Task: structure prediction
Amino acid sequence: MKQTRVRLTALLAVLLGCATLQANALPEAQIKHLRDTISRVPVLELAPKAAQLVRKASDKDKEDVAVVVVRSILSKKPALAASVVEAIAKVAPAAAPAIAKVATELCPTQAVKIAKVAATFAPDLASEIAANVAAAAPDVAVNVARSVIAIVPMESPQILESVSAAVPASKTALENDTTLNLVAVLARNSRSSASTSVRKGAIVSKPKGGTAPPVPTAVPTTATAPEVRNQNQVDFQKIILAQIETTGGFSGNQATEIINQTVKTINAINSDTTLTKQEKAALTFSTTDTVKSIVENPNLTPQNRSDLASSAVITVATVVKDITVTPAEKALIVTFVKEQIKTIALDANLNNSTKATETIKAVVKESKVLTEKAKTTEVTAATVTTSSTVVTQQKQAYGSTAP
Result:
């Protein structure tokens, strides 16, 4: 019996020894050297020194060195959490999930900031970073997911899944967050449309005043590099989500409405078989650029921005869905909307919500006028100029001197 106990004790010692080796892959002497080095560094130089120590480490030791360095610094200077994580993630992105976890364990109140910084410099590991940080600070798991998605929106489906798995208690809240799930839908749609493309078989000629001919069947072509619109969609999502986080920015419902309507419009553009891939990319860019101009307009209240952005994209969708409007005319009308709204956003003389709102309404109204004209006559650059004049008169009525 005694001999059995001795064997068990020996076996346990071996197992514990192995566990210790796995947890501290670095030799004790190296760990002590790192800690001693850090203890002699002035506070303002700790973040750069942390990066230097990790950069000098061998590839197999970088993560372990990074973890030791983060623990050593933040156990005494927790206020440096974000700056230390940023410094290390810049030189060793692969270590970002590990150091984000350790930093959050030591500084849980800074979880959201730590997650954002780590994801910024290691976007390919965003879902792992979000899961690690959420697990270390489960009470703010939903906020961690939101912050990381704001940095890497195209990874939103994976981020939502990983955070839900890491913190099961957050699953219901994440599933009920309409804004985050709409962003995930947009990300999935963008990826799907990037892998396939369509080209119109022939230009549809439009008999003015008559019935439009049948739309030709789309001809599939070989997939090419992602369309320009993908990056624009990423930027668009970042801006919307950033506004949610900003004091005085959009509410969740307002952001949801904007994203929802924009998704519908982008889907309408992608479904139009009369458009080439390039035409779709251009129309999508104009659409999201228009929304961004409204969202970033300092002259508008959040409610005005929400209402007008939704109205603008609904207008664009109406133009795109009208089969009597040729691709060239669609491009003219949508570009008209984009350029006019961007001009309004930059016009300092339209310095309150009422002025800017009424002027943007004039743009939307004129775009509808152009769409109606396109049903019976040819809409040209000259026709658009007439509508631009109407909007200019509206702006001048409010004191604007811009053309």
